[in-house]
Amino acid sequence: MKLRQRLASTSVFVGVCLAVFIGCRTVQPGSDLLVVRTEQALTTAGATFDFVLRLDNSHRVFWRTNAPAFHGFCEWLRTPLFYNYTNVVPRAVAMQLEVDDLKLAYKSAKSSSNSNALFTALGTLSAAIAQSTSWSNIILAPVSLEQ
Amino acid sequence: MRQSALNNDMTTIAALQVALALLPLIQTGITEFVNWINSLKKSIEQDGEWTPELDASWRASLLAKGLDPAYQPDQA
Fold first, then answer.
1. How far apart are CA A68 and CA A15, in angstroms?
2. Sign of the C-alpha dihedral, residues B16, A98, B67, A58?
3. Which of A136, A138, A144, A147 to mutate to test the interface with B (most CBs of B within 10 A)?
4. Which residue from B20, B39, B1 is spatially nearest to A16, judged by alpha carbons?
5. Which of residues 28-57 of B touch A (CB under 8 A)?
6. Is the pLDDT of residue A141 over 70?
């Protein structure tokens, strides 16, 4: 219980500090906030998917047996999909490429339809990022934090 | 837009809090975990759009990931 409380209080303290400093940060003049937010999500997505996929890959048989839902989620990320009609890439890669394509389309023509399409794709990518983060928390947390 | 920007920052902050909570528990995948932390840090620090060169290099490295064994589905 003490370790859990320490972890919780430390993370809350750091979170508050981060919120204070981040709240003061501004985007460079001339930069589109939607584009910057999209690129931030893409930066996070790449490493988040890397993390869970390499974790699963390190002991696939183990995770398939002992955490089949987690392994199933990783297999969902690995599902081969067509990109640009000719390339076959994993879903984790395809999602990011499609968001980047929509971002570039929005940058070239900032219409409401382009921004809506980018918002929608960004929402889907963000959901996958959140699910990956949740799985990493579930998989790596021990059965009991009591010491 | 300001609300969505704040939501995005709060999501990244939440992810960082998860990462901090996981830190003492990590026994495998330490390199990937550190890379994840660095990406969250980079994400928060970004305050301008990517240059076309940066975008192109990012896309190239992403496509290369498609060949990584960790990204390959289970063999049938």
1. 32
2. positive
3. A136
4. B20
5. 28-29, 32-33, 35-36, 38-40, 42-44, 46-50, 55
6. no
Closest CA to A41 of A129, A114, A103, A108: A129
A33: distance to nearest CA of chain B, Å?
8
Reported ipTM: the value is 0.76
| Entry pTM | 0.77
CB contact A133 to B (< 8 Å) = yes
Instruction: Provide the sign of the torsion angle of the four alpha carbons A134, A140, A144, A146, taken in this order.
Output: negative
Flag whether residue A109 sits within 8 Å of chain B, measured between CB atoms. no
For B57-68, what is each residue's pLDDT tens digit? 999 999 998 889
Whether chain A has a CB inside 8 Å of the CB on B71: the answer is yes
The string of pLDDT tens digits covering residues A35-94 is 999 999 999 899 899 989 998 998 899 999 999 999 999 999 999 999 888 889 999 999
* Interchain CB contacts (distance < 8 Å): A and B: 156
Place of tokens 């940060």: A25
Contacts 24+ apart (CB under 8 A), B50-58: B50/A39, B55/A100, B55/A104, B58/A42, B58/A100
